[in-house]
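SEVERITY: medium
COMPONENT: batch folding queue
REPORTER: lab tech (J.R.)

DESCRIPTION
The queue accepted two submissions in a row. Attaching both inputs and their returned structure tokens so the on-call engineer can compare them side by side.

ATTACHMENT 1
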Amino acid sequence: ASLVSGASGYSATSTSSFKKGHSLREKLAEMETFRDILCRQVDTLQKYFDACADAVSKDELQRDKVVEDDEDDFPTTRSDGEFLHNTNGSKEKWFPHVTPKGINGIDFKGEAITFKATTAGILATLSHCIELMVKREESWQKRLDKEGPNSLINEEEFFDAVEAALDRQDKIEEQSQSEKVRLHWPTSLPPGDVFSGVGNHRFVQKVEEMMQNHMTYSLQDVGGDANWQLVVEEGEMKVYRREVEENGIVLDPLKATHAVKGVTGHEVCHYFWNVDVRNDWETTIENFRVVETLADNAIIVYQTHKRVWPASQRDVLYLSAIRKIPALNENDTETWIVCNFSVEHDSVPTTNRCVRAKINIAMICQTLVSPPEGNKKISRDNILCKITYVANVNPGGWAPASVLRAVAKREYPKFLKRFTSYVQEKTARKSILF
């Protein structure tokens, strides 16, 4: 029997059932049906070819038999000299009518139509499967990238994901540090006088204003202020936070104080400001570049930070300036300060790839010296650097307040310990730079 009758239902309904709303499971079931149809056609064709081969084989055997019989049909001489002829239908023996058994019912035209319809159905179903996969991938990508109050994951899941990503970064950093030995190449440090001047560029007034504000307000003791919360205390390091939210965005000012032995304020601020060694201690940056050099002590930097899923990736464009503030009287000590604050630059517009964060950060350092006994030379055992680090960051975009505060509580102390240890390591075998 022809396969058309049995398969025409599948072929006729395959295109009509091709609806965009069908799931992948249904489409896979359709392809299983198409596969069955093709398998049946292959089986039918195989039977036909087997029958043909069998018929040819039988035909050859028949021909051999006819030849043998015909040899017997040649005239034989009787004793009286007459010939005898065998006339029992030798033509039928030579030309038998061979028809393979069971193949007369195959409708090749119908089978061809079915084959074409089936393959077209397979291609259409595959195309739809690909479409569904692409849509599903786009949907997951949107879910992956989505950041906002309507995020599909709750705050607990958000925090767990962020914490897991940060843990992975920490492990990668630890591994990279264990695999490499830091090179202590000589770093040329300009004399302090270079950093005493205000400079001459278009942001001079803004830099002066920022530094004066930090010198006035950032050095104030906040230990007894009810608005500031002590969130971390480890040895000499204390981290305070004042909770501030604006339009649902966490803008908590953060302030940390620390005391580090064996280094000067000049050295700490130099390594914090110098972009040549930035990647040695900063682990959150993906890449950065100096956009413009405004003066010997002022540059504009653009940097992108490693993405921490599910938050969007952040970038920041800021002016970084380093200054030495002379002591007002002999009882005071000179102060070194690095101030980083967001600016705009025509060559670095905002992009859709990153959320532009806004920052106002200051690293303020003062060096205390305990004179050695007798006339001994001052060593690193005699110096102590008092550090005040303040950070006002607007992360842009959105993330749960509880998550941002938990991450800040974890990351800021870790950064300060990592950075100050790096400065101690880099300066241990160098002359003291006051």
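ATTACHMENT 2
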Amino acid sequence: MSGSNAFLIISKNECYINSLTAYLHQQDQEADISVANFEKGFDVVKSQLSGNNKKFSSILVSSDVLEPNLEGLLELLTNLRNHAGSCPITLFHSGSIDAETRKAISERVDFFKGMQRIDLSNPDQTDLKKVIPFH
């Protein structure tokens, strides 16, 4: 691959970040991977999206950034959608989410995957390939 893939990972979970980074590099050794630690707020994410003229292939969000604050998560996803343009957004969640919240989240993201169905220590590659576009 040509290294034309650029990803933004938004998470607070170091294990999740490491597993996903390893998976992305396995698929594309030259992948450009940025990590935004959401503990510092949305401005950090916004600066990643606009600061370095980088066009991301995909944005990967871990719901741990705001669990169990689902209202905050919906606000983050809305802001992300507004700033990310047409870039695909995948949300990985680890908890049980009620139907109403699931519907609200689905309206804001392109892919919505349960982490319990994807073992991030040993990712099911065919499953992740469906939600993480590679050039």
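NOTES FROM REPORTER
The beta strands are 6-10, 32-36, 58-62, 89-93, 111-114.
No errors were logged for either attachment.
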